[in-house]
UniProtKB/TrEMBL annotation:
It holds the Pfam family Band_7. It comes from Armatimonas rosea. This is Regulator of protease activity HflC (Stomatin/prohibitin superfamily). It comes from the Bacteria. Residues 67-231 form the Band domain. Residues 1-18 have a biased composition (Polar residues). The chain crosses the membrane at residues 25-48, 54-72.
Length: 300
């Protein structure tokens, strides 16, 4: 009443061997309904002709075999098992019929979202942080999701949490080195690594991860204030470095232009005083207040 079609794909190989998922095609529901109607008609004819055993037998057969119907909706599948043996998986949509004693387990093939809880972990620098991720996944191998793991949904949740902890522990929350990958600055690279990490862990369950993104990332409350002051100090230092670099360039250009145009002849002490004054004006946080010498020497 059903046929098996073996499917093996190289990309579905697991650590224990090739994927064992098979297509099981059940008897089309329309044909099964027609056969049942014919049997009911024959049973009624048996009752009408006083052939009671025939009528009762056919009615019992029809009643007993009604349990073989099952409907496959879009985005769903049925794993068929007979006497503890895997028969195959039906993924084609529609109504089908199989032997009543064949077990049927519904497996959803739709894309699902796992909204992970906030986890408190230490980053690669030992700082306690809070992190949470949203993972998009779906079942692609019904055999592995049914028989290779105890509960594939719990397996997805637990392995995803483990992968998130591992990724967070191998990257710093933030880094002064622009070439280093950090959780805060390089979110896309971190998410790509997270997808690869989770996919490797979920392969035995026949699950494919399509996307992963960080939904929460912050320092733990006990160090959040200290890390904020550290970031502010780093920002001030960076700004000061840029200001000093710009001021040195402007002073150098000013001295060079004065010498090229021979505006004034200055001694080394005068140049040093000019450099000091220009650096004070350019690097000061407040506006400089010029002092103009207005004293005039009285003539005798």
């Amino acid at each position: 009443m059903f046929q098996n079609q073996q499917q093996m794909h190289p990309q579905e190989e697991t650590s224990s061997g090739w994927s064992r998922e098979k297509d099981a095609v059940g008897l089309p529901g329309g044909l099964a309904i027609a056969i049942h109607l014919i049997l009911v008609g024959i049973a009624i004819f048996g009752f009408a002709t006083q052939n009671i055993p025939l009528g009762v037998g056919l009615m019992l057969l029809v009643f007993f075999t009604l349990g073989g119907y099952f409907t496959v909706a879009p985005g769903e599948s049925f794993v068929l098992m007979m006497f503890g043996k895997y028969v195959g998986t039906v993924k084609k949509n529609g109504i089908f019929w199989t032997l009543p004693w064949v077990g049927k387990q519904r497996i959803s093939l739709r894309t699902r979202t796992l909204n992970g809880q906030q986890l408190k972990v230490n980053d690669s620098m030992g700082n306690p942080i809070e992190i949470a991720c949203v993972i998009v996944w779906k079942v692609t191998d019904t055999y592995r999701s049914t028989f290779e793991v105890q509960n594939y949904e719990s397996f997805v949740a637990m392995q995803s949490e483990t992968a998130i902890r591992h990724i967070a522990a191998t990257h710093p929350y933030d880094s002064d080195d622009d070439r280093a990958i950090s959780l805060r600055r390089n979110a896309s690279e971190v998410c790509d690594d997270l997808v690869k990490e989770i996919q490797a862990r979920l392969a035995p369950a026949g699950v494919t991860v399509t996307d992963a993104s960080l939904s929460h990332l912050a320092y733990s409350p006990e160090i959040a204030g200290a890390m904020l002051r550290r970031q502010q100090a780093a920002a001030v230092i960076s700004a000061r470095q840029r200001i000093v670099e710009g001021a040195v360039g402007m002073v150098e250009m000013a001295l060079q232009r004065i010498e090229e145009k021979k505006m004034v002849q200055m001694s080394e002490d005068q140049k040093a005083a000019m450099v000091a004054n220009l650096m004070t004006v350019l690097c000061s946080e407040q506006s400089a207040q010029p002092v103009v010498n207005t004293s005039v020497q009285a003539s005798s």
